[in-house]
Amino acid sequence: MQWNDFKPGSNLTVQEALNRASAIFKEAGLEYPRQEAQILFSRVLDWDRLKVVLEANTNLSQMQADRLKVAVKRRANGEPLAYIAGSKEFYSLEFTVNPAVLIPRPETELLIESALEWADRAGYSRGKGVLAVDLGTGSGNLAVTLAVLWPRAQFKAVDISAHALAVADENAYRHGVQDRISWYRGNYFSALSGIDPPPKFNLIVSNPPYIPQAELARLPLPVKGFEPLEALNGGADGLNGYRRLLSGLSRHLLSPGLVAVEIGAGQYQDVSGLFKSTGLFHRIEVRHDYQGRPRVVEGFAC
Fold first, then answer.
1. Is the CB of residue 258 less than 8 Å from the CB of residue 115?
2. What is the pLDDT of residues 100-126, one digit of tens each?
3. CATH number of the domain encompassing residue 222
């Protein structure tokens, strides 16, 4: 099917548009073309997927059809659905996203689970007593989610990208937690160097860049072609972000406290070794993702 076959008009029904979009996606090599089309339609039309099915015989307005045509072309060219829709769900909350920030992944929700379990064991009811920092905040999904869950906690969040911080701030306002998160631009703890005395935290979370540089070219097109490479590139061995984080840790970590970081495939031994080398933790644990792979390293300070 050619692009000029997709000619929206006043008599185009939802079903006809879905059929055309599915054919275009199949030709483009998308793995699940029909499902992709339904999800895309639900986001662009602001309908739930059930309504997309139930309204199959409904005629699209010219505006709806034009918007769908543009969105279908963008998706067929490899652009992630989240960027087309302008948002992504994370921990049951909707987050604004654009190409300035990584798209939140389900695996990163494990960092939220780590923080919640730690706080529960430590007795920090509703986050009271939690002093937290999110290093490499991106869309702000970690800091904002925790702030929503913990109405009595205070947060700082850091990113090297001013554009990413603008997205994160928008998400904080979106969820009504803007007064409890302070944003800082810079690289890990160096972003906080102007604060005297240096702030200390009993919770430090981070999803740093961890893809080895040589592997970036092998990433799927929706990732390498659209998401910010600086948020993916972990240096020659993928560990640069962890080294930078841990190098400033002794000045900022409260005890008792938790440091939790997301890791990539095959990095558990290396990252846990870096944690051990600091001498700051009495216990280091791993949390596995939904496929049984090591995904989060947790360091518990004495």
1. yes
2. 999 999 999 999 999 999 999 999 988
3. 3.40.50.150
Nearest-angstrom CA–CA distance, 293 and 272: 15
The rounded distance, in Å, linking the Cα atoms of 112 and 144 is 11
Structural contact between residues 131 and 154, judged by C-beta atoms closer than 8 angstroms: yes
Percentage of the chain exceeding pLDDT 70 = 97
Domain coverage including residue 266: 87-301
Give the pLDDT confidence score for residue 4 in this predicted structure.
52
Q: Say how many C-beta atoms besides its own lie within 10 A of residue 43's C-beta.
A: 17
Of 38, 53, 77, the residue that ends a domain is: 77
| CATH number assigned to the domain comprising residue 66 | 1.10.8
pLDDT tens by residue, 76-102: 999 999 999 999 999 999 999 999 999
> Do 282 and 145 have their domain in common?
yes
Question: Which of 283, 26, 9, 290 is CA-nearest to residue 298?
Answer: 283
Final residue of a structural domain among 77, 106, 125: 77
pLDDT, average across residues 140-161? 98
User: What's the pTM value of the predicted model, to 2 decimals?
Assistant: 0.93
Q: Are residues 200 and 126 in the same domain?
A: yes
